[in-house]
Amino acid sequence: MLHCFQKFALRACLAAFVVMLLFDRNLAFAETDAPECAGRSILPRLVEDDPAGYEATIRAAAAVRNGKGVVWRIEKDGVKPSLLFGTTHLSDPRVLEVPSAVFEAFDHIDTLILELKEMTNPSDMALELFKYPQLYTLQDQRLDQLLPSEETELLATALRQRGLTMDLLARMRPWFIYMSMQSSQCEAKRRARGLNVLDQAVALKAVENGIELVGAETVQEQLESLADVSDRSMLNVLLDLFATPYSLADQSETLIQLYESSDTGMILALLTELAHDKVGLREFLEKLLVERNRRMADRALPYLQSGNVMIAVGALHLPGDDGLIELIRQQGFTVSVVE
């Protein structure tokens, strides 16, 4: 059985980083809407356009440790079991249908560990963001001074197509622009009419049930992780986003379908396959996943030792040699897939 998280009010936050996560605090369990994005999975086209690349992606996905599953049980002798739930930062009704194990956990868990405790309060998160302008603005130069002329024009054209200008964003760090580009139009429309991203819905359900909320990191720490990616590497990742032949709606639809099939390994492999600058992508993933995974695992350990906890963080934090599943196992727990 699946159960659906939705909310009925939205309050947009001004910061692009938190646009993916921050919305108003009302939550209800309700019937899902029909999928409304017009995107198509890119996988069938990848088979046709680049069969060798597709086969390489399949092999890479199969090699990802713990690459199948978004719900995992955490167990240790003498300790009540806990749950690890890989979320996605989307509001599509299909991803708001959570597995039964997650839904039922709200009847008994003592603690919910999120990426950010402030997720339930958009205003607080926005205020935190604005405390650290040095992390998301360029201090001594403009974007068009970082790029050669042909890349500057590519970036300017891509921004114009999205109703933005180079002048408007010339002082913003590349990571900030990248994060602001992640939502497709249909995702933005869903949020505008009140649908909640999955992470937020989970957090608000915990509040409704009187469950303790714990942040695995702070807003400042998340910002610092993004800011630690070099501007050149982040620009390459950003230019890759604009250069791909697949629309944001298509990429979002692909992510949703892979998430529905719990195939986190394929999501990671596909990210690598589509990246032209694989060195820049590795730096990006090292800062955004690997280093943060270690922090999250360390912060979660005292709660896991007490048991009866659910950890709900982005699904890509789970798989891989340096993913949360392996890191939690290294702390003496048995971690087994539920679904």
TrEMBL record:
Cofactor dependence: Co(2+); Mn(2+)
A GO CC term assigned to this protein in UniProt: membrane
Pfam families linked: TraB_PrgY_gumN
GO biological process: negative regulation of Wnt signaling pathway; proteolysis
CDD domains: Tiki
Protein localization: Membrane
Signal peptide: 1-30
GO molecular function, one term: metal ion binding
Mode of membrane association: Single-pass type I membrane protein
Taxonomic superkingdom: Bacteria
Key words of the record: Glycoprotein, Hydrolase, Membrane, Metal-binding, Metalloprotease, Protease, Signal, Transmembrane, Transmembrane helix
Coiled-coil stretches noted in the UniProt entry, renumbered to this chain: none
PANTHER family for this protein: METALLOPROTEASE TIKI, METALLOPROTEASE TIKI HOMOLOG
Protein name: Polysaccharide biosynthesis protein GumN
Organism of provenance: Ciceribacter ferrooxidans
